Prior knowledge:
It is built from nine helices and no strands. Helix 1 (3-12) packs antiparallel against helix 2 (16-39) and helix 3 (42-59) crosses helix 4. By secondary structure, it is mainly alpha-helical.
Amino acid sequence: xxxxxxxxxxxxxxxxxxxxxxxxxxxxxxxxxxxxxxxxxxxxxxxxxxxxxxxxxxxxxxxxxxxxxxxxxxxxxxxxxxxxxxxxxxxxxxxxxxxxxxxxxxxxxxxxxxxxxxxxxxxxxxxxxxxxxxxxxxxxxxxxxxxxxxxxxxxxxxxxxxxxxxxxxxxxxxxxxxxxxxxxxxxxxx
Length: 190
């Protein structure tokens, strides 16, 4: 049974807590990897992941099923990262009280620490030179293999779907930028 099927079964039983647990355990490690790429700082990524887990926990009961739970989870993660980037108070680092969602998020964080893949330093250096939006587009399309429609859904602002052809064009420009940066770093021949 797939993660989405297990979540759907729990929601059918009206056990939103169990469904949220399935979603965070099932998709948490890949969402955390995505956030580590987009947010860059591991501590900040952990904080954004905790916010994502809270958002998922609170919002899953109202999930309308307009996309897969996986895509919806990435959308929540992207919005949590965007809010974090805009938050003028993010530097205060004040810890909030522990809830079930944040305890569960912490368990995913702990288990994912050991499993974090080791990319080469050169690739990481290139990725750090990208904007969060560029990194998100790259991770969602290449690393997570989401369809253009799903990427558009994830990166949509409140109520405004991103145009797929526009995303494709941005992706083409991003590939050109990465090639240029790789040439500058001496990673590929001119």
